[in-house]
Design goal:
By secondary structure, this protein is of the alpha+beta class. It is built from 6 helices and 24 strands. The chain has helices at 2-23, 28-36, 42-67, 74-95, 100-118, 402-406; strands spanning 121-126, 133-138, 152-153, 161-166, 172-180, 193-200, 207-208, 216-221, 227-232, 239-244, 251-255, 265-266, 272-277, 284-289, 295-300, 306-309, 316-323, 326-333, 339-341, 349-354, 360-365, 372-377, 384-387, 391-396. The N and C termini lie far apart (51 Å).
Length: 413
């Protein structure tokens, strides 16, 4: 009888353990913080809210870093995704609480922070205050009320900052800055020498990657996040250079006596780059294989084309073309090399960039008398102005996929 009672007790304990595990799939502290959102002491409520936001930030950062790391295994990514999903499920459960304070804080205070973190964004240069700075703003492709709002100055430096590129995980931005060194040929008025910098996507931790007396500018992050291409006039060689994402191992990739112009752009598979070549035997839009340096020209003669967009499907390019002293945006099928003007506007339109959905295009234009950032579809329709304050050089953040949908929670849920 004694052993029977002991066995029954152990069985009941095991069942309770299973039920508790099913009910609390997340670490206990997350559920505890959710409950503390309704505490009587306002300081306890504020503390719980801050801790939940910090926990979510860490889970998002962990997932994004693993997702875009070259050395990550599929099970590691799935595990990070599962933890983040469970975290959101816990928030959604708390959002259905009978306590109005808990519901309010989840829906109006916490979820908007995560939606901002995972939303598609456009980084751009602005001269609105008389000094070029890097700004960022939310941009939900061709829809969404947040477009163009909540603009933030990321660089906040008296030196000139321009030409930005997102890391593939969306956590960092590389850019050109004239904040250091002696006056340069390209920037005598404001002083400084162009170098490549990197910062977190919120503008923190601005770090210099190149330190050379020559101009280093127009960086482009590789699709795997491991390398950065940039243009430079160092060592008396106008060329395209390559370095690691942390600035190490800087070396010339292509001497640019024949390769000069805006660019380069990476092909999504990281095997080729594309850029503009100015007047010479290979003028036009050029593709170069990074492994064997094979050169292929896909558009001839009109050397004033500015290649600036290569979508994930690699089938269509978008670029600016100067025609009769006016810049227009063209789209071209790479395989058949057919080109089409999709702006046809009296104003200047340029620097087109594909959005993460592969259907939207960001560009800058002075069609309304002042430079600004616009968005349109791939046929040139549905044009909307997002920011018209002497803004230019847009760079759309990479796709966030299911992350942006994960945090869609409303008071109706």
């Amino acid at each position: 009888m004694k052993y029977l009672i002991l066995s029954i007790g152990m069985l009941l304990g095991f069942i309770i353990l299973i039920l508790n595990g099913a009910e609390n799939q997340l670490p206990d502290h997350v559920n505890l913080f959710c409950r503390q959102l309704g505490a009587e002491d306002w300081r306890e409520r504020e503390s719980a809210q801050s801790k939940l936001i910090e926990s979510g930030r860490k889970l998002i950062a962990e997932y994004q870093q693993l997702k875009f790391s070259a050395n990550t295994t599929a099970p590691e990514i799935d595990n990070a995704k599962d933890k983040l999903t469970e975290f959101v499920q816990s928030l959604k459960a708390a959002a259905r609480s009978k306590d109005p304070e808990i519901r309010m804080r989840i829906i109006r205070k916490i979820i908007p922070v995560f939606r901002q973190l995972t939303a598609s964004k456009i980084a751009f240069c602005s001269n609105r205050d008389g000094n070029e700075e890097i700004y960022v703003m939310p941009a939900r492709a061709l829809g969404g009320d947040a477009d163009g709002q909540n603009q933030v100055n990321l660089t906040k430096h008296p030196g000139r900052d321009r030409y930005c590129s997102w890391s593939p995980d969306g956590t960092r931005i590389v850019f050109s800055s004239w904040r250091d060194g002696s006056p340069s040929r390209a920037n005598l008025a404001k002083g400084g020498n162009a170098n490549i910098y990197v910062m977190n996507s919120d503008g923190t931790n601005q770090t210099r990657l190149t330190k050379h007396p020559a101009e280093d500018w127009i960086p482009a992050w590789s699709p795997d996040g491991q390398k950065i291409l940039f243009q430079s006039h160092r060592d008396n060689k106008k060329g395209t250079y390559l370095m690691d994402g942390d600035g190490k191992n800087q070396k010339i990739l292509l001497e640019q006596e024949i390769f000069e112009g805006l660019g380069p752009l990476w092909k999504p598979d990281g095997q080729e780059i594309i850029f503009l070549s100015r007047p010479n035997d290979l003028s036009g839009v050029i593709i170069v294989n990074l492994f064997n340096t094979e050169i292929k020209r896909i558009s001839k003669d009109e050397w004033q084309k500015i290649a600036s967009g290569w979508p994930a499907d690699t089938k269509k390019l978008i670029f600016g073309v100067k025609e009769n002293n006016n810049y227009e945006i063209y789209i071209m099928d790479i395989f058949c090399q057919e080109e089409k003007n999709i702006t046809e506007n009296k104003g200047n339109d340029g620097w087109p960039m594909w959005g993460p959905d592969g259907k939207s295009i960001a560009f800058y234009s002075n069609r309304n008398g002042r430079w600004g950032i616009y968005v349109m579809d791939s046929q040139g329709g549905n044009i909307r102005g997002l920011s018209i304050k002497d803004d230019y050089d847009p760079a759309w953040s990479p796709a966030v996929g299911w992350l942006s949908e994960l945090f869609e929670i409303s008071e109706k849920d």
